[in-house]
Structure formats: C-alpha cells, structure tokens
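User: Quick sanity check before I run a bigger batch. Here is a single chain. Can you write out its predicted 3D structure?
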Amino acid sequence: MQEALLKILDVFFFGFHTILILFNVFGWLIPRWRFINFISLSLTAFSWFILGIWFGWGYCICTDWHWQVREILGYQNMSTSYIHFLLLKLTNVNLSTELVDICTIVIFFLALIVSTYLNVKKWMVNKKGNKR
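Assistant: Done. Predicted structure follows.
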C-alpha cells in the first residue's frame, strides 16, 4: 500500500510542479491571474534565495519533497536541478545542468519583472481612479 501511495505522490509532484513552473513563467499573460502569479513568483524567490541560505541556493520545497518520494521508491542519480530533470524526463535530451540553470534564472527574472511591472501598473491605475 505504501508503495502505491508513493507512486501516486510521484505522479502528483510531476504534475503539480510542472503546472507551477508553467504558471510562474506564463501566468502574467492572463490579467485575472497576474496578482496570484506575482505571489507565486515571490514565494519561489523566497524559497530560492531566503530558504536557500540554509538549504542551498535554489532550494525548492516541492523539489525536496519530490526527491524524498523518489529516493524511497529507489530512484537514484537525480539531477541537482528540477528543470534539468524535467527536461530530461519529458524530452530525453540531456542538456548541461549549467545551461539549464542559467536559462531558468533568466526566464524566472524576466517573468518576475513583467509580473511586477503589470501588477504595479494596475495598482497605479486603480489608485489614480480612486482619487476621483
């Protein structure tokens, strides 16, 4: 029974983490999702850069939990980068971890900048509209 539950958790983490990553990258495109996207990106930054002080740069609790499940299931030699791991699993292409990490950081900060800009712009428009 425990192994079945662990396999379900493994599939859940693949799905949830993939959706979270895609939401972080593209969530700002949908106006109704922009504030939640900004919150999600901020929590990701908190995990990577604040929790990362204690757990290692780029620390992600989702990755940590997923790795724990996979280790119990007997998987070994998992990548140090979840994005690298995901790309390898989905495409079977083994890019360099350094390249994937650099692309991850660049895309993350671009998404964060765009999300921040759009949220501040909306806040300024709403603030200006409330003064009338």
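Helices lie at 2-26, 34-55, 61-72, 82-91, 97-130.

User: Great, the batch can go ahead then.
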